[in-house]
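Take just one protein record:
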Amino acid sequence: MIGGRAAELQVSSWWSESQIQSAAFSGLIVIAEAEGRIIGIAQRGRNGSDHVLYKPYLDPDYRGCGLGPALIQSILQNLPSNAPRLCVEHFAGNERAGAFYEREGFIVERVERSDANSALDVVWRVRTSDRELT
């Protein structure tokens, strides 16, 4: 969707060993396993003051089994007590992702327009943390 060069850049910056190692040691990654192998992953990060769900991936063979919602719930449960919400972003052209996040209670907050193609617009969604803030 975003092209080979842009995809390579995202992989090299988002999936570098140092980036993943830092997130793992900070307790920001949740993993789903089956039969001794990783079948799902999600990471919490920051965008300014917002907590953001990044890298939610699930083995296609395990879609529809409730693991995607479970990964999100795990991220939500591990938000700091003063975090009232969780954000997520996806490309507008990724309609499957948009429908999934909508089913999981994320509502569109804003859209960052792409100069190149409306399918590459970045849709930001938000969901409350589901816990009482004191």
